[in-house]
């Protein structure tokens, strides 16, 4: 498997220099498992106890997450996951979709994809569909694998394009959307649905047709947007 069982409490053997990054990863993993949703509070004392680290690197990590647009802060509520309404979600999609289409266009124009890349994407996609046959994992672990595979699928294109500024923006947008969708995980779709949508993107890439690839990607994004609008 490309993604093994997640471990939140002991995820990294760490040194003092990377404590704040551990906290960032901790928060991201909680989002990937579906445990953190829009509006949820992040309590420094709870995080300090769970991660067994001091509060200083936690504060540093929370500042970074705030700068990335993951968190909001108020004197009464402290740090909390950004609470997104339908207008916010629509705006994020209006940013994400054009950027991802630009990424695909760059990849096709520079002919950056090869068969090995497509095999890797197919392997990620296969892991996603295997979730439907897994009766041993709990819901948090299934969410983690599902969302990690989906993130890795999209992240591959972002990084392949070598457009690092777009990649940074897109990753932040991805996690912001996921916190909103975690309020009702039906918006994420089933493993089978995402498998088919990803498969169509892979096949379009294999065909060498940018037009087909953009169309397959648009259909994939529309399925998320339509699901969210129905809530």
Automatic annotation (TrEMBL):
Is DNA-binding tagged as a keyword? Answer: yes
Query: What Gene3D superfamilies does UniProt report for this protein, alphabetically?
Result: GntR ligand-binding domain-like, Winged helix-like DNA-binding domain superfamily/Winged helix DNA-binding domain
Q: Does the keyword DNA-binding apply?
A: yes
Stored InterPro entries: GntR_C, TF_FadR/GntR_C, Tscrpt_reg_HTH_GntR, WH-like_DNA-bd_sf, WH_DNA-bd_sf
- Lineage: superkingdom: Bacteria
Residues of the HTH gntR-type domain = 17-84
Protein keywords: DNA-binding, Transcription, Transcription regulation
Q: Which residues cross the membrane?
A: none
| Name of the featured protein | GntR family transcriptional regulator
Q: What species does this protein belong to?
A: Lacrimispora xylanolytica
